[in-house]
C-alpha cells in the first residue's frame, strides 16, 4: 500500500483481535462479573446480560471501531474530526479520558489484590487453610497500609512501561500468546468445580433464571457490566479502532472479541458459583467470590500449588492488558491533542491514576471515613464509572454515530468501502440510530426514577 501513515498500528489481524480481547478480558470477567451476577440473582442476571451483549454490546463495539478507524485519532480528536462544526461533541471524548483515570484508580486496587494472591501462592500460604482463615487473611491484606499500595504501584508501573514503548511492539506482543493459556486453565477449573459436592446448587443459581427477579436494578447492573466488560463507552475502543487496518472486517472482529469476552465471563461463573456453594460462600459475598473461593478450589486439586500460581499470574496479565487500553486512551489524548511526548504523557497519566488509586485502596480499610454518599471511594469509582460515565458516553457515542457523522463515513467503514457486509448494514444502522439510544436512555432514566 502506498499510503504512508505515521500512526503506529496493529501488525496483523490476529494482533488486533488479541489486543481488543486483551482489553475486554480482565478483572471485569473474573472478579466483577461474578460479584454483580451474585448480587443480582444469578440466572436472571445472566439472561439479561446475554441479551444486552448481543443487541447492544456488539453493535456498539463495531460503532466505536468505526469512529476510531475513520478519524484515525484519539477519542477527543475523533469527535472533533468527524463533526468539525459541532465542537461540543468532543466533550464525550474528554469524559472518556476522565473516565479512564477513574477506572484505572480502582482497577489497579483489584489488580493489587491479584498480585497479593500471586505472592500468597508463591509462599504456599493457602495450603491446608480453611475458608475462615483465608477470608480473614484477605481482609487483613486489604487493611494493611503499605503493601496494597506497593502492589498497585507495581501494576501501574508495568502497564506504563508497555504503553511508553508504543502500540505494535508493546500491546500486541504481550496479548497474543497469553489469553489462550488463561482460557485453558479456566476450562480445567470448570471441570474441577462442577465435580465438587454440592456444585449442582451453584450451577442452578447461575443458569436457572428466576424471571421474577428481573428488576430495574438487575437491568441497570447488567448494562453497566456489559459496558465495563466490553470496554465500551469511554473511548478505549475508539482508540484501538484508530490502529486497525482498513482491510480488517470490523464486524467479525467485534463478534470474535465480544463473544470471547462473554465466554470468559460465563466460564468464570461456572467455576465460581458451584465452588462457592460447595464451600459455603454466599453468592452476594463480593470480592470473596474470586479471591477466596478460587484458592479453596485449588486446595482441593492435585497440583493445586502450581495451578493456583499460574492462574493468578495469568489474571494479573489479563488485568494488565486491560489497563493498557485504559492508559492508552489518556496517553493518545495527551500526545495528539496536547503534543506531549509519549514518555511524558505516560508518566503524567500513570502517576495521576496512582494518586487516585491510593484513596481508593485506603477507603476500604475498616472504619475508613473516605466515603462519598455513604459508599467507599472504591465503590463510588466503580459505580459512577460504569453506571454513569460509560452509559452516558455510550449513549452519546451512538447518537453521534447515528445522527451526526456523514452517512458515507459510516458506510465506508462498516463495509470496508463497499467490499463486505452489505446485507447486515441496514440492521446495524437501525440499531445504532434508534434502538441503542432508546434502550440506553430508558435504562438510565429508570435508574433515577426508582
Ligand atoms: N474490560 C476490562 C475488564 O473487563 C476493563 C477495561 C479495560 C475497561 N478497558 C476498559 C472498562 C475501558 C471500561 C472501559 O476487565
Quick tags:
450 residues; two-stranded antiparallel sheet; binds tryptophan; mainly alpha; 1% strand; 76% helix
Report what the structure shows:
The chain is mostly helical and 450 residues long. 76% of the residues lie in helices and 1% in strands. It is built from 19 helices and 2 strands. The chain has helices at 13-24, 27-39, 43-71, 75-82, 90-122, 131-143, 146-164, 167-194, 199-207, 216-229, 236-241, 250-279, 288-291, 293-299, 304-337, 342-362, 377-404, 407-415, 422-448; strands spanning 371-372, 375-376. A two-stranded antiparallel sheet has the order 1-2. Helix 3 runs antiparallel to helix 12 and helix 7 (146-164) crosses helix 15 (304-337). It is globular. Bound molecules: tryptophan.
Main sheet characteristics? 2 strands, antiparallel
Structural class: mainly alpha
Q: Whole-number average pLDDT?
A: 91
- Count helical runs: 19
Strand fraction band? under 5%
Q: How helical, in percent, are the residues?
A: over 70%
Side-by-side strand order of the widest sheet: 1-2
**Count of beta strands:** 2
Distinct small molecules: tryptophan
Low-confidence segments, ≥5 residues, pLDDT <50? Answer: 1-5
Distance between the termini: 55 Å
Order of SSEs: HHHHHHHHHHHHHHHHEEHHH
Give the structure's gist in a few sentences.
The chain is mainly alpha-helical. Helix content is 76%, strand content 1%.
Explain the layout of strands and helices.
Elements: H1 13-24, H2 27-39, H3 43-71, H4 75-82, H5 90-122, H6 131-143, H7 146-164, H8 167-194, H9 199-207, H10 216-229, H11 236-241, H12 250-279, H13 288-291, H14 293-299, H15 304-337, H16 342-362, E1 371-372, E2 375-376, H17 377-404, H18 407-415, H19 422-448
Antiparallel strand pairs: 1-2
Helix pairs in contact: 1-8, 1-12, 1-15, 2-10, 2-12, 3-4, 3-10, 3-12, 3-17, 3-18, 3-19, 4-5, 5-7, 5-15, 5-16, 5-17, 7-15, 7-16, 8-12, 8-15, 9-12, 10-17, 10-19, 12-14, 14-15, 15-16, 16-17, 17-19
The structure holds tryptophan (TRP).
Residues 23-24, 26-29, 103, 228-229, 231, 234, 236, 322, 325-326 line the site of tryptophan (TRP).
Amino acid at each position: 500500500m502506498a499510503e504512508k501513515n505515521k500512526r503506529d498500528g496493529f501488525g496483523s489481524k490476529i494482533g488486533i483481535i488479541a489486543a481488543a480481547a486483551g482489553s475486554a478480558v480482565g478483572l471485569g470477567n473474573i472478579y466483577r462479573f461474578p460479584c454483580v451476577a451474585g448480587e443480582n440473582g444469578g440466572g436472571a442476571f445472566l439472561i439479561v446480560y446475554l441479551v444486552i451483549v448481543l443487541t447492544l454490546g456488539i453493535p456498539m463495539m463495531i460503532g466505536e471501531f468505526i469512529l476510531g478507524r475513520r478519524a484515525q485519532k484519539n477519542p477527543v480528536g475523533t469527535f472533533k474530526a468527524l463533526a468539525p462544526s459541532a465542537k461540543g461533541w468532543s466533550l464525550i471524548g474528554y469524559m472518556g479520558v476522565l473516565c479512564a483515570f477513574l477506572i484505572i484508580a480502582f482497577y489497579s486496587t483489584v489488580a493489587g489484590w491479584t498480585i497479593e494472591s500471586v505472592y500468597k501462592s508463591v509462599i504456599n500460604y493457602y495450603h491446608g487453610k480453611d475458608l475462615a482463615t483465608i477470608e480473614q487473611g484477605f481482609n487483613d491484606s486489604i487493611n494493611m497500609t503499605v503493601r496494597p499500595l506497593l502492589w498497585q504501584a507495581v501494576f501501574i508501573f508495568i502497564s506504563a512501561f508497555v504503553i511508553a514503548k508504543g502500540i505494535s511492539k508493546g500491546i500486541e506482543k504481550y496479548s497474543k500468546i497469553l489469553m489462550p493459556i488463561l482460557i485453558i486453565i479456566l476450562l480445567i477449573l470448570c471441570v474441577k468445580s462442577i465435580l465438587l459436592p454440592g456444585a449442582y446448587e451453584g450451577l442452578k443459581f447461575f443458569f436457572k433464571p428466576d424471571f421474577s427477579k428481573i428488576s430495574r436494578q438487575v437491568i441497570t447492573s447488567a448494562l453497566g457490566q456489559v459496558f465495563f466488560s466490553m470496554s465500551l463507552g469511554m473511548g478505549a475502543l475508539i482508540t484501538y479502532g484508530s490502529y486497525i487496518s482498513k482491510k480488517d472486517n470490523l464486524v467479525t472482529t467485534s463478534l470474535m472479541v465480544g463473544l470471547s469476552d462473554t465466554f470468559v465471563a460465563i466460564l468464570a461463573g461456572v467455576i465460581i458459583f458451584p465452588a462457592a456453594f460447595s464451600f459455603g460462600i454466599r453468592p452476594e459475598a463480593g470480592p470473596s467470590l474470586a479471591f477466596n473461593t478460587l484458592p479453596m478450589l485449588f486446595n482441593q486439586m492435585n497440583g493445586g500449588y502450581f495451578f493456583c500460581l499460574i492462574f493468578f499470574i495469568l489474571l494479573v496479565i489479563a488485568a494488565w492488558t486491560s489497563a493498557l487500553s485504559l492508559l492508552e486512551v489518556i496517553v493518545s489524548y495527551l500526545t495528539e491533542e496536547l503534543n506531549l511526548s509519549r514518555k511524558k504523557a505516560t508518566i503524567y497519566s500513570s502517576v495521576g491514576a496512582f494518586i487516585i488509586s491510593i484513596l481508593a485502596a485506603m477507603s476500604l480499610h475498616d472504619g475508613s471515613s473516605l466515603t462519598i454518599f455513604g459508599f467507599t471511594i472504591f465503590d463510588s469509582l466503580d459505580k459512577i464509572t460504569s453506571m454513569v460515565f460509560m452509559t452516558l458516553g455510550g449513549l452519546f457515542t451512538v447518537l453521534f454515530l447515528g445522527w451526526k457523522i456523514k452517512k458515507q463515513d459510516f458506510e465506508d467503514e462498516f463495509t470496508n468501502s463497499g467490499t463486505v457486509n452489505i446485507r447486515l448494514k441496514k440492521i446495524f444502522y437501525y440499531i445504532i440510530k434508534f434502538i441503542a439510544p432508546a434502550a440506553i436512555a430508558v435504562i438510565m432514566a429508570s435508574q433515577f426514577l426508582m
